[in-house]
């Protein structure tokens, strides 16, 4: 029997007081998220993650307040539901300077960003981190964000993906095709930094963007950052199979996860990629202590600081559906431009949840279908091992319930148990983020990647 392969582990974060997953738990006496405006808070988080050899420090992002519930943003601000929303990209250089190995993922929307400025920003981050950067590609879902960028209403779900496809073409052209590998000479004696004939404009003209180029940044360690994606809808899976190198899912049922991952792998192969080109992280919440009784006490204290109303504000923002407008027995509308997977029943029945089912699901900190493990370190590690075996996920994204307590407990209590089982690396990784995830250790997109077709080719 072969030795187990270490799983990937990341930390899910937001530059917000109320982090997605359980936004009201900042009220917990042990939580320190009121310090999110300070570098001290984030430095502490990054140091713990670095010392624990986590693979990824991941930042989610929103571009508007959650104002669907009650028709305004009052409840979102009362409960700090993913608010305030600071810019996570500004955190990364500071945290990268404090760490040597920790990699970072950052969420940027293709709906509101411009591909030219985005490509330069991520090339800069790739340079400054030594290739330790990944981009989480999202299409956005908040109507408030649409208004912030001058739109009267949210762009339709599938239309956002079509816009994203062109966005990807533009950034690939900039990252992969604008500068040749040998463009940079950097020779003082010859007084030559780069050869102009080896740097080209891209002259992109499409339905949404016109970009002349050339790319303003010289090729970075990865050229294209590691590409991350979290869409679980049919269109989202199609997009992931074409572009993503790492996906994450908030599902908990291991069989449902396996079916979804198998579907994405099949589509990836149909796109000419290898099935294992797409790695995965499953969102995980952990409550642990040296004894089962202590772990249950910890959970009970979390529950006493968890508030359903805050979670329903979050749900309304995610889906575009204000639950307070529905009676318990009413099925939810399926006509939403938000996160449709949060509206439908699990298992692919094609039927929506009722409002009562949503209220029941979110009544406890377990959030119904979320993967939350409560127990001793040995019990939690055993459950992780079993879940990974059945689901086929290549790793987990730790979603903190309190900060930094959840991360500290994971690092000090769970990691040693996972290491005993061969499921957690015992040494820090080096090199670019992409090289760490690929069997061949390559820094750049592989030749079978969609983005590789845009590479600089000598005429």
How would you describe the overall organization of this protein?
By secondary structure, the chain is of the alpha/beta class. The protein is built from 14 helices and 13 strands. It has helices at residues 39-51, 74-78, 92-98, 115-128, 143-148, 157-177, 234-243, 254-270, 292-304, 308-319, 355-361, 377-391, 405-420, 433-437, and strands at residues 8-14, 56-60, 104-109, 133-138, 184-187, 192-194, 204-205, 210-211, 226-229, 246-249, 279-288, 372-375, 395-398. The strands form 3 sheets. It has an 8-stranded parallel barrel with strand order 1-2-3-4-9-10-11-13, surrounded by 5 helices. Strands 5-6 form a two-stranded antiparallel ribbon. It has a two-stranded antiparallel ribbon with strand order 7-8. Helix 4 links the parallel strand 3 and strand 4 (133-138). The radius of gyration is 22 Å and the shape is globular. The termini are far apart. The model has no long low-confidence stretch (mean pLDDT 93).
Question: Which labels suit this protein?
Answer:
459 residues; two-stranded antiparallel sheet; globular; 8-stranded parallel beta barrel; single chain; alpha/beta
Structure at a glance:
The chain has 14 helices and 13 strands. The chain is α/β, with parallel strands linked by helices. This is Coenzyme F420-dependent N5,N10-methylene tetrahydromethanopterin reductase and related flavin-dependent oxidoreductases.
